[in-house]
Amino acid sequence: xQTLSAETLQGLLENLYLEDSSADSEQLxxxxxxxxxxxxxxxxxxxxxxxxxxxxxxxITYADTVVEHGVPALRSLRQLLNNRLRPFAEVVHVLPFxxxxxxxxxxxxxxxxxxxxxxxxxxxxxxxxxxxxxxDLVLNHISAAHPWVRQFLRDxxxxxxxxxxAAPDPCWDQVVRPRSSSLFTQLxxxxxxxxxxxxxxxxxxxxxxxxxxxxxxxxxxxxxxxRHGVRWVRLDAVGFIWKTPGTGCIHLPEAHRIVEVxxxxxxxxxxxxxxxxxxxxxxxxxxSYLVSGREAHLAYNFPLPPLLLExxxxxxxxxxxxxxxxxxxxxxxxxxxxxxxxxxxVGLRALEGLMSDExxxxxxxxxxxxxxxxxxRRLTNGEEAPYEINISWWSAMADGGIxxxxxxxxxxxxxxLLVLALPGxxxxxLPALLATPNDLGTFxxxxxxxxxxxxxxxxxxxxxxxQDPDSDxxxxxxxxxxxxxxxRDQPALHPDAAMEVLSAGRSDLVMxxxxxxxxxxxxxxxxxxxxxxxxxxxxxGHAGLAWADCLSGSSETHASQLQLEPYAVHWxxxx
Length: 575
Known about the structure:
The chain is an alpha/beta fold.
């Protein structure tokens, strides 16, 4: 871990704000460090610590996924995690909890106030007891109701400097779009109409990162989060935050520089701070935030969900195996954030160059047959292209035959156990853990495609579901909770342990050899609905030693055949 010095930060700021003098950058550096609770006065360097271990998994949830009458949602969430889901809650990603006006909390209306029905900052700190919290910094935009926007429309500071005013011109023709809405929106100001950037929609006004006041504002928010238990921060849609005429306005050098600044501020404030970038883009672009070793600690592994989804639905793992066989080598203290389901849809941009148009089309059709919907984005030529699949992961695992529930539970568990076997940090979405199908009721009420996979539960209903020994939710949480405990004790499954793909060229199995801490483990996944046989002698290892399955506790002789049930998963070691 790097140690931050004021000189290092000042150098980054000088490269970011080229029009400012060295004195300006020095003053800004001092202001940032003062905001972070005077931590810059500590002459002792931060003590190095492991940022993640084999026991770590991230639980992704909205603050109000679980509600009960008269109780702040953060308190209800804390009770559920402490009583029922503790194995999954080493790190809890509470999706945007600040006051907002739309987009599931991502149109932030205040950087000071938590949404009242969720609770307050003390409730957030209480939730952090005994665990680490992960929170969002929504860096690209704010709600049209945010004080900065209101100040901008009155031509007052600091908002006048913080909102990105638009100048529609052909120089913006190449801007990469994540949506089909207008790039610019007209608002009514005190002196007449004002055009502003709205990359993600008319209620989400882009901020102007060319102004140091924006960095100061987000640093104040970061400090407040850190003081209330947040240790991991997710940089939402970070690739879009800097705009330069004549470019695609995505992943520009200044955006990378801002990530580096935020990482250094995190490391200066807490020795166990982790920066996670969220960029739903082709794989090489996504990894660009890791390769220097100075920016993000983790990046969302966006190719994994669509490739794993396609393999589970089609029963063919050839594309998944080929991609796994090219797993990237990353700098120390960096890694991938592995997930399947999340609050958004299954992103499709990461498939560019990894899946043929025909295979992708068949995947879209299969998901629509399972009740899913397809969201689109606008290309620079004005055409629209599929951007994400909106579907719950549980519904996506339904069978395509007469009985949708046929193998649904086994197929679902296979995908989640595969996530646990990969290098990097695994993450689970709370509604998926509760085996939740598409939320058609909410979608019909709101018309928002993403609401298919953003359900809300009453606390007593969740309790009943998890107390029912025959429910899918009980089966899922029991199986995965056991797997998490097993994973914790296997050095070879540490997030940083090496991986080798033994199934390259195969379509029926995914076999991963992990090595670490003096241990070797082979994770075997049957991605088909057929019973298969695997000769254990082909796994290598020591002749004559039995293979033991960490998950089931059973053992086989070295020369025997391992019978693989449909969608079975085995974690094999030799003692």
